[in-house]
Amino acid sequence: MVVEVGPNGNGDGRTVVSKSIIAAGLVGIVPALLTLSLEKIGALTLNPVMNALPGEGIVFLLPGMLGAMAVSGNAHAFHLWLAAILNFAFYFLISWAVAVLIGSVLLRFKVSRRATNS
Predict the structure, then answer these.
(1) From first to last of its 118 residues, what are the pLDDT tens digits of the chain?
(2) What are phi and psi of 56, to 5 degrees?
């Protein structure tokens, strides 16, 4: 989605799209990497941050794990790489949509402010 800027704008809004894709990719890669390292994270360590992840943080990995269970047809034996891909896609799409929405709202607010100040 390219945000169009009116005659008072100074660009065509393509930077909003590229920045949102980069931000969404960075947001999406975190749960994907956590999903891939789920077997190692599940073991208790002396690090309290890593010990908290299996209890409370596992909720953020559920969309990909549920999808992998649905695709494999088995809730007990599913591939973590598939869950990681699905987690990446889920969080990428959500964060990309939010970033584009925020960027277009800010851009329209900037254009409307510029039009009222002139």
Answers:
(1) 444 444 445 555 555 567 788 889 999 999 999 888 887 766 656 666 666 666 677 888 889 999 999 999 999 889 999 999 999 999 999 999 998 888 888 888 877 766 676 6
(2) -100, -35
The residue to which tokens 């809730």 are assigned: 75
Terminus-to-terminus CA distance in the chain, angstroms?
28
- pTM score above 0.85: no
In the chain, where the domains are located:
14-111
Query: How far apart (Å, rounded) are the C-alpha atoms in residues 59 and 55?
Result: 8
In one letter, which amino acid is 59?
V
